[in-house]
Amino acid sequence: MKIKRVVIVGGGTAGWMAANHLGVELRRDPEIEITLIESKNIPVIGVGEGTVPKIKETLKKFGISELDLLTCCDATFKQGIKFSNWMDAKKKDVNFYYHPFSSPYPSGFDITNYWLNNRDKFEFSKLSEIYSIAELNRSPKQISSPPFIGVVDYAYHFNAAKFSDLLARNAREKLSVKHRFETIAQVLLHDDGSIKALAYESGIMEEFDFYIDCSGFAALLVGGAMKVPFLDKSSQIQTDTALALQEPTADSDEIQPYTLATAHKAGWIWDIPLTNRRGVGFVYSSKYLSEDEAVQKFSKYVGRDLQNANLRRVPMKIGYRELFWDKNCVALGLAQGFVEPLEATSILVTDFAANLVARNFPSMREDIPVVAGYCNKVMAYTWERVIDFVQLHYFISDRRDSDFWIDNTENAVVSDALRDRLDMWKIGVPKKIDFFSSFDIFGVENYLFVLYGMDYPTRPGVLGVNEESKAKELVRDVQQKSIQMANSLLSHRAWLTELRKALALQSA
Ligand SMILES: Cc1cc2nc3c(=O)[nH]c(=O)nc-3n(C[C@H](O)[C@H](O)[C@H](O)COP(=O)(O)OP(=O)(O)OC[C@H]3O[C@@H](n4cnc5c(N)ncnc54)[C@H](O)[C@@H]3O)c2cc1C
User: Residues 440, 385: contact at Cβ < 8 Å?
Assistant: First the structure.
Protein backbone atom coordinates (compact mmCIF):
# COMPACT_ATOMS: atom_id res chain seq x y z
CA MET A 1 0.00 0.00 0.00
CA LYS A 2 1.40 3.38 -0.99
CA ILE A 3 2.06 5.90 1.78
CA LYS A 4 0.28 9.05 0.72
CA ARG A 5 -0.93 11.00 3.75
CA VAL A 6 1.81 12.02 6.18
CA VAL A 7 1.12 13.97 9.36
CA ILE A 8 3.59 15.78 11.59
CA VAL A 9 2.29 16.37 15.12
CA GLY A 10 3.89 19.47 16.68
CA GLY A 11 4.83 22.92 15.43
CA GLY A 12 8.08 23.54 17.32
CA THR A 13 11.53 23.59 15.75
CA ALA A 14 11.44 19.80 15.33
CA GLY A 15 8.04 19.72 13.61
CA TRP A 16 8.86 22.46 11.13
CA MET A 17 12.32 21.10 10.50
CA ALA A 18 10.73 17.73 9.66
CA ALA A 19 8.19 19.51 7.43
CA ASN A 20 10.97 21.15 5.44
CA HIS A 21 13.09 18.01 5.09
CA LEU A 22 10.09 15.93 3.99
CA GLY A 23 8.81 18.75 1.81
CA VAL A 24 12.10 18.97 -0.08
CA GLU A 25 12.69 15.22 -0.41
CA LEU A 26 9.11 14.18 -1.27
CA ARG A 27 7.94 17.07 -3.44
CA ARG A 28 8.61 15.16 -6.64
CA ASP A 29 5.80 12.74 -5.74
CA PRO A 30 2.46 14.50 -6.36
CA GLU A 31 0.52 11.77 -4.52
CA ILE A 32 2.13 12.60 -1.16
CA GLU A 33 0.42 15.14 1.07
CA ILE A 34 2.18 16.45 4.21
CA THR A 35 0.14 18.07 6.99
CA LEU A 36 1.47 19.64 10.20
CA ILE A 37 -0.85 19.81 13.18
CA GLU A 38 -0.13 21.82 16.29
CA SER A 39 -2.11 22.89 19.31
CA LYS A 40 -2.94 26.55 19.93
CA ASN A 41 -3.16 25.78 23.64
CA ILE A 42 0.08 23.88 24.14
CA PRO A 43 3.03 26.21 23.66
CA VAL A 44 6.36 25.25 22.10
CA ILE A 45 9.24 24.89 24.55
CA GLY A 46 10.68 28.23 23.41
CA VAL A 47 14.33 27.53 24.21
CA GLY A 48 16.97 26.17 21.83
CA GLU A 49 18.82 29.19 20.53
CA GLY A 50 22.29 27.79 19.80
CA THR A 51 23.30 25.85 16.69
CA VAL A 52 26.35 24.32 15.00
CA PRO A 53 27.68 25.01 11.46
CA LYS A 54 25.73 22.13 9.90
CA ILE A 55 22.65 24.36 10.12
CA LYS A 56 23.96 26.37 7.15
CA GLU A 57 23.75 23.32 4.85
CA THR A 58 20.25 22.65 6.10
CA LEU A 59 19.05 26.20 5.44
CA LYS A 60 20.50 26.02 1.93
CA LYS A 61 18.70 22.73 1.33
CA PHE A 62 15.41 24.30 2.45
CA GLY A 63 15.96 27.37 0.24
CA ILE A 64 16.06 29.77 3.22
CA SER A 65 18.48 32.64 2.72
CA GLU A 66 21.00 33.76 5.32
CA LEU A 67 19.55 37.25 5.06
CA ASP A 68 16.09 35.97 6.02
CA LEU A 69 17.52 34.15 9.00
CA LEU A 70 19.50 37.18 10.18
CA THR A 71 16.65 39.65 9.74
CA CYS A 72 13.68 37.52 10.86
CA CYS A 73 15.15 35.75 13.89
CA ASP A 74 17.25 38.41 15.74
CA ALA A 75 20.14 36.13 14.78
CA THR A 76 23.82 36.57 15.57
CA PHE A 77 26.89 34.58 14.58
CA LYS A 78 28.31 31.81 16.73
CA GLN A 79 31.94 30.82 16.17
CA GLY A 80 32.03 28.24 18.90
CA ILE A 81 31.60 27.82 22.64
CA LYS A 82 33.72 29.42 25.34
CA PHE A 83 33.85 27.12 28.36
CA SER A 84 34.60 28.99 31.55
CA ASN A 85 35.33 27.43 34.99
CA TRP A 86 35.11 23.84 33.81
CA MET A 87 38.44 23.18 35.52
CA ASP A 88 39.71 23.71 39.06
CA ALA A 89 40.11 27.49 39.33
CA LYS A 90 43.03 27.22 41.75
CA LYS A 91 45.22 25.35 39.29
CA LYS A 92 44.88 27.64 36.26
CA ASP A 93 45.59 31.32 35.54
CA VAL A 94 43.25 31.20 32.56
CA ASN A 95 40.25 29.07 33.44
CA PHE A 96 38.57 28.94 30.07
CA TYR A 97 38.93 27.26 26.71
CA TYR A 98 37.23 27.43 23.36
CA HIS A 99 35.57 24.74 21.32
CA PRO A 100 35.74 26.72 18.08
CA PHE A 101 34.04 25.79 14.80
CA SER A 102 37.32 25.27 13.01
CA SER A 103 40.01 22.69 12.55
CA PRO A 104 42.90 22.31 14.98
CA TYR A 105 44.99 21.06 12.03
CA PRO A 106 46.68 24.18 10.56
CA SER A 107 46.87 23.79 6.75
CA GLY A 108 45.63 20.23 7.25
CA PHE A 109 48.63 19.06 9.36
CA ASP A 110 48.13 17.18 12.60
CA ILE A 111 50.46 18.98 15.01
CA THR A 112 48.83 17.69 18.18
CA ASN A 113 52.03 15.94 19.26
CA TYR A 114 53.96 19.17 18.84
CA TRP A 115 51.40 20.90 21.03
CA LEU A 116 51.59 18.13 23.65
CA ASN A 117 55.35 18.63 23.82
CA ASN A 118 54.81 22.38 24.28
CA ARG A 119 51.51 22.44 26.14
CA ASP A 120 52.74 24.85 28.84
CA LYS A 121 53.58 27.49 26.23
CA PHE A 122 50.15 28.11 24.66
CA GLU A 123 46.57 26.95 24.88
CA PHE A 124 45.33 24.32 22.45
CA SER A 125 42.43 26.44 21.21
CA LYS A 126 44.97 28.99 19.96
CA LEU A 127 45.55 26.55 17.09
CA SER A 128 42.37 28.11 15.74
CA GLU A 129 42.19 31.70 14.49
CA ILE A 130 38.76 31.85 16.09
CA TYR A 131 40.33 32.21 19.54
CA SER A 132 41.56 35.77 18.81
CA ILE A 133 38.57 36.79 16.75
CA ALA A 134 36.16 35.62 19.42
CA GLU A 135 38.08 37.21 22.29
CA LEU A 136 37.85 40.56 20.46
CA ASN A 137 34.14 40.11 19.62
CA ARG A 138 34.81 40.23 15.88
CA SER A 139 32.40 39.10 13.18
CA PRO A 140 33.33 35.88 11.32
CA LYS A 141 32.48 37.59 8.00
CA GLN A 142 33.66 40.55 5.96
CA ILE A 143 30.94 42.90 4.68
CA SER A 144 31.61 41.45 1.22
CA SER A 145 31.51 37.77 2.31
CA PRO A 146 28.96 35.74 0.33
CA PRO A 147 25.97 34.22 2.15
CA PHE A 148 26.82 31.28 4.42
CA ILE A 149 30.58 31.82 3.98
CA GLY A 150 32.89 33.49 6.46
CA VAL A 151 36.57 34.15 6.91
CA VAL A 152 36.18 31.44 9.56
CA ASP A 153 33.35 28.95 9.99
CA TYR A 154 30.32 29.81 12.06
CA ALA A 155 26.76 28.88 13.05
CA TYR A 156 24.04 31.09 14.54
CA HIS A 157 22.23 32.04 17.70
CA PHE A 158 18.58 32.90 17.10
CA ASN A 159 15.19 33.46 18.70
CA ALA A 160 13.72 29.93 18.80
CA ALA A 161 10.09 30.96 18.26
CA LYS A 162 11.02 33.22 15.33
CA PHE A 163 13.12 30.44 13.82
CA SER A 164 10.15 28.06 13.97
CA ASP A 165 8.03 30.75 12.26
CA LEU A 166 10.60 31.13 9.49
CA LEU A 167 10.72 27.36 8.94
CA ALA A 168 6.90 27.28 8.97
CA ARG A 169 6.57 30.01 6.34
CA ASN A 170 9.05 28.25 4.12
CA ALA A 171 7.36 24.85 4.43
CA ARG A 172 3.89 26.26 3.78
CA GLU A 173 4.71 28.70 1.02
CA LYS A 174 7.50 26.96 -0.89
CA LEU A 175 6.97 23.28 -0.11
CA SER A 176 3.16 23.05 -0.01
CA VAL A 177 3.02 21.66 3.52
CA LYS A 178 -0.52 21.95 4.89
CA HIS A 179 -0.94 23.41 8.38
CA ARG A 180 -3.77 23.19 10.89
CA PHE A 181 -4.38 24.00 14.54
CA GLU A 182 -5.93 21.09 16.40
CA THR A 183 -5.36 19.70 19.87
CA ILE A 184 -5.06 15.94 19.85
CA ALA A 185 -7.25 14.34 22.51
CA GLN A 186 -6.64 10.70 21.62
CA VAL A 187 -4.41 8.57 19.43
CA LEU A 188 -6.17 5.46 18.08
CA LEU A 189 -4.24 2.28 17.30
CA HIS A 190 -4.77 -0.64 14.90
CA ASP A 191 -4.69 -4.18 16.32
CA ASP A 192 -1.03 -4.52 15.29
CA GLY A 193 -0.09 -1.50 17.43
CA SER A 194 0.42 0.91 14.51
CA ILE A 195 -1.38 4.26 14.56
CA LYS A 196 -4.81 4.33 12.95
CA ALA A 197 -6.09 7.87 13.53
CA LEU A 198 -5.94 11.07 15.57
CA ALA A 199 -8.99 12.29 17.46
CA TYR A 200 -9.03 16.04 18.06
CA GLU A 201 -10.64 18.05 20.86
CA SER A 202 -12.75 19.70 18.14
CA GLY A 203 -14.51 16.36 17.70
CA ILE A 204 -12.94 15.59 14.32
CA MET A 205 -11.12 12.31 13.76
CA GLU A 206 -8.59 11.92 10.98
CA GLU A 207 -6.65 8.99 9.51
CA PHE A 208 -3.17 9.22 8.00
CA ASP A 209 -0.78 6.64 6.53
CA PHE A 210 2.31 7.83 8.38
CA TYR A 211 2.81 9.78 11.63
CA ILE A 212 5.74 11.92 12.78
CA ASP A 213 5.71 12.66 16.49
CA CYS A 214 7.19 16.11 17.19
CA SER A 215 5.02 16.78 20.23
CA GLY A 216 7.96 17.66 22.49
CA PHE A 217 8.63 16.04 25.86
CA ALA A 218 4.96 14.87 25.88
CA ALA A 219 5.82 12.30 23.14
CA LEU A 220 2.11 11.89 22.60
CA LEU A 221 2.27 9.26 19.86
CA VAL A 222 5.44 7.30 20.37
CA GLY A 223 5.37 7.36 24.18
CA GLY A 224 1.74 8.00 25.14
CA ALA A 225 0.01 5.76 22.59
CA MET A 226 2.61 3.30 21.33
CA LYS A 227 4.43 2.94 24.68
CA VAL A 228 7.89 2.76 23.14
CA PRO A 229 10.19 2.58 26.19
CA PHE A 230 12.33 5.58 27.08
CA LEU A 231 16.00 4.79 27.77
CA ASP A 232 16.76 6.95 30.77
CA LYS A 233 20.33 8.28 30.69
CA SER A 234 20.23 10.37 33.84
CA SER A 235 22.91 8.18 35.41
CA GLN A 236 25.32 9.50 32.78
CA ILE A 237 24.04 13.07 32.37
CA GLN A 238 22.95 14.31 35.77
CA THR A 239 21.62 17.80 35.00
CA ASP A 240 17.81 17.68 34.97
CA THR A 241 16.48 21.25 35.29
CA ALA A 242 16.98 24.59 33.60
CA LEU A 243 15.91 28.09 34.62
CA ALA A 244 15.65 30.25 31.53
CA LEU A 245 15.67 34.05 31.38
CA GLN A 246 15.70 36.70 28.68
CA GLU A 247 17.81 39.77 29.47
CA PRO A 248 17.42 42.90 27.31
CA THR A 249 20.60 44.44 25.88
CA ALA A 250 21.39 47.92 24.56
CA ASP A 251 22.22 48.68 20.91
CA SER A 252 25.64 49.85 22.03
CA ASP A 253 26.53 46.58 23.84
CA GLU A 254 29.19 44.37 22.27
CA ILE A 255 27.90 41.01 21.02
CA GLN A 256 29.97 37.94 21.82
CA PRO A 257 30.33 35.76 18.72
CA TYR A 258 30.12 32.60 20.84
CA THR A 259 27.98 30.83 23.42
CA LEU A 260 29.43 31.36 26.87
CA ALA A 261 29.11 28.20 29.01
CA THR A 262 30.10 28.89 32.60
CA ALA A 263 30.29 25.91 34.94
CA HIS A 264 29.11 26.15 38.54
CA LYS A 265 28.92 23.78 41.51
CA ALA A 266 26.08 21.65 40.13
CA GLY A 267 25.92 22.34 36.38
CA TRP A 268 26.51 25.30 34.12
CA ILE A 269 25.01 28.52 32.72
CA TRP A 270 24.42 29.28 29.06
CA ASP A 271 24.70 32.86 27.85
CA ILE A 272 23.55 33.39 24.29
CA PRO A 273 23.57 36.84 22.70
CA LEU A 274 20.93 37.81 20.15
CA THR A 275 20.75 41.23 18.48
CA ASN A 276 18.28 42.63 21.03
CA ARG A 277 18.63 40.46 24.14
CA ARG A 278 20.56 37.65 25.81
CA GLY A 279 19.10 34.22 26.43
CA VAL A 280 20.57 33.06 29.73
CA GLY A 281 19.91 29.69 31.32
CA PHE A 282 20.92 28.06 34.58
CA VAL A 283 21.28 24.31 34.05
CA TYR A 284 21.60 22.20 37.18
CA SER A 285 21.02 18.89 38.84
CA SER A 286 18.17 19.05 41.35
CA LYS A 287 19.82 16.21 43.27
CA TYR A 288 22.64 18.54 44.26
CA LEU A 289 21.05 21.99 44.31
CA SER A 290 17.64 23.22 45.52
CA GLU A 291 15.67 25.61 43.35
CA ASP A 292 16.21 28.42 45.90
CA GLU A 293 19.97 27.94 45.77
CA ALA A 294 19.83 27.79 41.99
CA VAL A 295 17.95 31.11 41.84
CA GLN A 296 20.47 32.66 44.24
CA LYS A 297 23.43 31.51 42.16
CA PHE A 298 21.72 32.56 38.94
CA SER A 299 21.02 36.01 40.45
CA LYS A 300 24.70 36.37 41.24
CA TYR A 301 25.62 35.52 37.65
CA VAL A 302 23.11 37.92 36.10
CA GLY A 303 23.91 40.67 38.61
CA ARG A 304 20.38 41.25 39.95
CA ASP A 305 17.89 39.56 42.26
CA LEU A 306 15.85 37.02 40.29
CA GLN A 307 13.53 35.94 43.13
CA ASN A 308 10.58 37.70 41.49
CA ALA A 309 11.87 37.68 37.92
CA ASN A 310 10.08 36.01 35.05
CA LEU A 311 12.16 32.82 35.19
CA ARG A 312 10.98 29.79 33.24
CA ARG A 313 11.62 26.49 34.96
CA VAL A 314 12.18 23.72 32.40
CA PRO A 315 12.44 20.13 33.67
CA MET A 316 14.67 18.08 31.34
CA LYS A 317 14.10 14.39 30.59
CA ILE A 318 17.51 12.92 29.75
CA GLY A 319 17.63 9.94 27.39
CA TYR A 320 16.07 8.72 24.18
CA ARG A 321 13.35 6.40 22.86
CA GLU A 322 14.47 2.80 22.47
CA LEU A 323 12.96 2.85 18.98
CA PHE A 324 13.07 6.04 17.04
CA TRP A 325 10.93 4.45 14.33
CA ASP A 326 8.12 2.06 15.33
CA LYS A 327 5.70 0.76 12.68
CA ASN A 328 4.11 3.77 10.95
CA CYS A 329 5.46 6.32 13.43
CA VAL A 330 8.75 8.17 13.79
CA ALA A 331 9.68 10.46 16.70
CA LEU A 332 11.79 13.57 16.25
CA GLY A 333 13.00 16.40 18.48
CA LEU A 334 12.28 16.27 22.19
CA ALA A 335 9.74 13.50 21.61
CA GLN A 336 12.62 11.33 20.45
CA GLY A 337 15.19 12.28 23.05
CA PHE A 338 17.28 14.94 24.72
CA VAL A 339 20.69 15.04 26.36
CA GLU A 340 20.95 18.57 27.78
CA PRO A 341 21.71 21.92 26.12
CA LEU A 342 25.53 21.66 26.32
CA GLU A 343 27.10 21.73 22.81
CA ALA A 344 23.70 22.49 21.23
CA THR A 345 23.14 18.87 20.22
CA SER A 346 19.34 18.84 20.06
CA ILE A 347 18.59 20.79 16.88
CA LEU A 348 21.61 19.06 15.32
CA VAL A 349 20.31 15.55 16.12
CA THR A 350 16.78 16.52 15.05
CA ASP A 351 18.11 17.86 11.77
CA PHE A 352 20.19 14.72 11.23
CA ALA A 353 17.29 12.39 12.07
CA ALA A 354 14.71 14.31 10.01
CA ASN A 355 17.06 14.21 7.04
CA LEU A 356 17.58 10.47 7.59
CA VAL A 357 13.82 9.82 7.54
CA ALA A 358 13.16 12.08 4.58
CA ARG A 359 15.99 10.64 2.46
CA ASN A 360 14.93 7.06 3.22
CA PHE A 361 11.20 7.64 3.26
CA PRO A 362 9.44 4.40 2.23
CA SER A 363 7.01 4.79 -0.62
CA MET A 364 5.13 1.57 0.32
CA ARG A 365 3.92 0.55 3.76
CA GLU A 366 5.48 -2.91 3.24
CA ASP A 367 8.95 -1.25 2.99
CA ILE A 368 8.76 0.13 6.53
CA PRO A 369 10.39 -2.77 8.47
CA VAL A 370 13.56 -2.67 6.35
CA VAL A 371 13.99 1.11 6.51
CA ALA A 372 12.96 1.33 10.18
CA GLY A 373 15.44 -1.38 11.20
CA TYR A 374 18.28 0.48 9.53
CA CYS A 375 17.31 3.91 10.88
CA ASN A 376 16.85 2.60 14.43
CA LYS A 377 20.42 1.25 14.41
CA VAL A 378 21.77 4.55 13.11
CA MET A 379 19.92 6.63 15.68
CA ALA A 380 20.83 4.42 18.66
CA TYR A 381 24.51 4.74 17.70
CA THR A 382 24.17 8.50 17.15
CA TRP A 383 22.51 9.09 20.54
CA GLU A 384 25.09 7.04 22.42
CA ARG A 385 27.97 8.96 20.88
CA VAL A 386 26.27 12.33 21.50
CA ILE A 387 25.85 11.36 25.16
CA ASP A 388 29.55 10.39 25.29
CA PHE A 389 30.60 13.74 23.89
CA VAL A 390 28.44 15.77 26.27
CA GLN A 391 29.51 13.67 29.25
CA LEU A 392 33.18 14.13 28.36
CA HIS A 393 32.94 17.80 29.44
CA TYR A 394 32.09 16.74 32.99
CA PHE A 395 34.01 13.49 33.25
CA ILE A 396 37.52 14.75 32.51
CA SER A 397 37.28 17.85 34.68
CA ASP A 398 39.61 18.18 37.66
CA ARG A 399 36.95 20.04 39.66
CA ARG A 400 36.23 18.30 42.97
CA ASP A 401 34.66 21.21 44.85
CA SER A 402 31.17 19.69 45.24
CA ASP A 403 29.44 16.31 45.34
CA PHE A 404 28.16 17.03 41.82
CA TRP A 405 31.68 17.22 40.41
CA ILE A 406 32.94 14.26 42.44
CA ASP A 407 30.02 12.12 41.22
CA ASN A 408 30.50 13.26 37.63
CA THR A 409 34.20 12.40 37.65
CA GLU A 410 35.33 9.82 40.20
CA ASN A 411 31.95 8.09 40.54
CA ALA A 412 30.68 8.58 36.99
CA VAL A 413 28.98 5.87 34.93
CA VAL A 414 30.40 6.13 31.40
CA SER A 415 29.92 4.01 28.31
CA ASP A 416 32.51 1.39 27.37
CA ALA A 417 33.06 3.24 24.11
CA LEU A 418 34.01 6.48 25.84
CA ARG A 419 36.17 4.68 28.40
CA ASP A 420 38.01 2.77 25.65
CA ARG A 421 38.61 5.93 23.67
CA LEU A 422 39.88 7.83 26.71
CA ASP A 423 42.23 4.94 27.57
CA MET A 424 43.59 4.98 24.00
CA TRP A 425 44.05 8.75 24.15
CA LYS A 426 46.18 8.46 27.29
CA ILE A 427 48.84 6.69 25.26
CA GLY A 428 48.49 8.49 21.94
CA VAL A 429 46.71 11.42 20.30
CA PRO A 430 43.16 11.04 18.95
CA LYS A 431 43.12 10.44 15.21
CA LYS A 432 40.46 10.65 12.50
CA ILE A 433 40.44 6.86 12.16
CA ASP A 434 39.43 6.47 15.82
CA PHE A 435 35.97 7.59 14.63
CA PHE A 436 34.97 4.79 12.36
CA SER A 437 31.36 5.70 11.69
CA SER A 438 29.94 8.59 9.71
CA PHE A 439 27.24 8.66 12.39
CA ASP A 440 29.73 10.03 14.92
CA ILE A 441 28.24 13.52 14.80
CA PHE A 442 31.19 14.76 16.85
CA GLY A 443 34.55 13.75 15.44
CA VAL A 444 38.24 14.05 16.20
CA GLU A 445 38.40 17.82 15.81
CA ASN A 446 35.62 18.40 18.35
CA TYR A 447 37.20 15.97 20.80
CA LEU A 448 40.67 17.52 20.47
CA PHE A 449 39.46 20.97 21.50
CA VAL A 450 37.61 19.64 24.54
CA LEU A 451 40.26 17.12 25.64
CA TYR A 452 43.11 19.58 25.52
CA GLY A 453 41.05 22.56 26.60
CA MET A 454 40.62 20.46 29.75
CA ASP A 455 44.27 19.34 30.00
CA TYR A 456 43.68 15.69 29.17
CA PRO A 457 46.94 13.85 29.95
CA THR A 458 47.94 12.22 26.65
CA ARG A 459 51.52 10.93 26.57
CA PRO A 460 53.34 13.12 24.00
CA GLY A 461 54.83 11.31 21.00
CA VAL A 462 58.44 11.77 19.93
CA LEU A 463 58.86 14.44 17.25
CA GLY A 464 61.27 14.30 14.32
CA VAL A 465 63.36 17.44 13.63
CA ASN A 466 61.48 18.21 10.40
CA GLU A 467 58.15 17.64 12.08
CA GLU A 468 59.08 20.05 14.85
CA SER A 469 60.22 22.86 12.56
CA LYS A 470 57.17 22.41 10.32
CA ALA A 471 54.86 22.58 13.35
CA LYS A 472 56.59 25.74 14.64
CA GLU A 473 56.13 27.37 11.26
CA LEU A 474 52.44 26.41 11.18
CA VAL A 475 51.83 27.79 14.67
CA ARG A 476 53.51 31.07 13.66
CA ASP A 477 51.23 31.17 10.58
CA VAL A 478 48.12 30.74 12.71
CA GLN A 479 49.28 33.52 15.03
CA GLN A 480 49.93 35.89 12.13
CA LYS A 481 46.65 35.07 10.45
CA SER A 482 44.84 35.60 13.75
CA ILE A 483 46.33 39.11 14.08
CA GLN A 484 45.49 39.96 10.45
CA MET A 485 41.93 38.73 10.79
CA ALA A 486 41.40 40.49 14.09
CA ASN A 487 42.62 43.75 12.53
CA SER A 488 40.60 43.47 9.34
CA LEU A 489 37.25 42.19 10.63
CA LEU A 490 34.51 44.48 11.92
CA SER A 491 33.15 43.99 15.39
CA HIS A 492 30.23 41.55 15.51
CA ARG A 493 27.83 44.34 16.49
CA ALA A 494 29.17 46.66 13.73
CA TRP A 495 28.70 43.95 11.06
CA LEU A 496 25.09 43.39 12.06
CA THR A 497 24.45 47.16 12.24
CA GLU A 498 25.91 47.63 8.74
CA LEU A 499 23.56 44.94 7.47
CA ARG A 500 20.58 46.74 9.00
CA LYS A 501 21.69 50.06 7.50
CA ALA A 502 22.11 48.52 4.04
CA LEU A 503 18.62 47.01 4.22
CA ALA A 504 17.10 50.34 5.37
CA LEU A 505 18.77 52.12 2.43
CA GLN A 506 17.44 49.51 0.01
CA SER A 507 13.88 49.85 1.23
CA ALA A 508 14.01 53.71 1.40
C1 LIG B 1 16.66 24.11 28.67
C2 LIG B 1 16.83 23.75 27.21
C3 LIG B 1 17.76 24.44 26.43
C4 LIG B 1 17.96 24.08 25.09
N5 LIG B 1 18.93 24.70 24.34
C6 LIG B 1 19.19 24.23 23.10
C7 LIG B 1 20.22 24.81 22.30
O8 LIG B 1 20.90 25.77 22.67
N9 LIG B 1 20.43 24.27 21.08
C10 LIG B 1 19.71 23.23 20.61
O11 LIG B 1 20.00 22.71 19.53
N12 LIG B 1 18.68 22.74 21.32
C13 LIG B 1 18.41 23.20 22.53
N14 LIG B 1 17.37 22.67 23.24
C15 LIG B 1 16.45 21.74 22.59
C16 LIG B 1 15.46 22.53 21.73
O17 LIG B 1 14.70 23.40 22.55
C18 LIG B 1 14.54 21.58 20.98
O19 LIG B 1 15.31 20.69 20.21
C20 LIG B 1 13.65 22.32 20.01
O21 LIG B 1 13.03 23.42 20.60
C22 LIG B 1 12.61 21.40 19.43
O23 LIG B 1 11.56 21.15 20.33
P24 LIG B 1 10.34 20.28 19.80
O25 LIG B 1 9.86 20.88 18.54
O26 LIG B 1 10.73 18.87 19.82
O27 LIG B 1 9.24 20.45 20.94
P28 LIG B 1 8.28 21.76 21.38
O29 LIG B 1 8.97 23.01 21.05
O30 LIG B 1 7.97 21.46 22.78
O31 LIG B 1 7.04 21.58 20.46
C32 LIG B 1 6.01 20.67 20.74
C33 LIG B 1 4.85 20.90 19.80
O34 LIG B 1 3.91 19.85 19.98
C35 LIG B 1 2.61 20.38 20.03
N36 LIG B 1 1.75 19.51 20.83
C37 LIG B 1 2.00 18.97 22.05
N38 LIG B 1 0.94 18.27 22.47
C39 LIG B 1 -0.01 18.39 21.51
C40 LIG B 1 -1.36 17.93 21.35
N41 LIG B 1 -1.96 17.23 22.32
N42 LIG B 1 -2.03 18.24 20.22
C43 LIG B 1 -1.45 18.96 19.25
N44 LIG B 1 -0.20 19.44 19.33
C45 LIG B 1 0.51 19.16 20.46
C46 LIG B 1 2.76 21.76 20.66
O47 LIG B 1 1.68 22.61 20.34
C48 LIG B 1 4.08 22.20 20.01
O49 LIG B 1 3.79 22.81 18.78
C50 LIG B 1 17.16 23.04 24.55
C51 LIG B 1 16.19 22.40 25.32
C52 LIG B 1 16.04 22.73 26.65
C53 LIG B 1 15.03 21.98 27.48
Answer: yes
Is the CATH number 3.50.50.60 carried by domain 5-49+159-233+318-385? yes
Given the CA of residue 348, which atom of ligand 1 is nearest to it?
Answer: 11
Confidence of residue 340 (pLDDT cuts 50, 70, 90): very high
pTM metric for this prediction: 0.96
CA of 260 to the centre of ligand 1 (A): 22
Note the residue count of the chain.
508
CA dist 263 and 117 (Å) reads 28
Please state the three-class secondary structure of 123-167 as a single string: CHHHHCCHHHHHHCCECCCCCCCCCCCCCCCCEEECCHHHHHHHH
Which residue ranges make up each domain of the chain? 5-49+159-233+318-385, 241-315
**Edge-to-edge strands, sheet with 329-331:** 178-181, 33-38, 5-9, 210-213, 329-331, 325-326
3-state secondary structure of 353: helix
Who lines ligand 1 at CB under 6 A?
Answer: 9-15, 37-39, 42, 44-45, 47-50, 160, 183-184, 214-216, 218, 220, 242, 244, 281, 314, 316, 333-335, 341, 344, 346-348, 350
CA of 47 from ligand 1 middle (Å) equals 7
- The answer on pLDDT for 498 being more than 90 is yes
Residue owning the nearest CA to atom 50 of ligand 1: 48
Of the pLDDT bands very low, low, confident and very high (cuts 50, 70, 90), residue 72 is: very high
Beta carbons of 346 and 319 less than 8 angstroms apart: no
Give the model confidence (pLDDT) of 93-135 as tens digits.
779 999 999 999 999 999 999 999 999 999 999 999 999 999 9
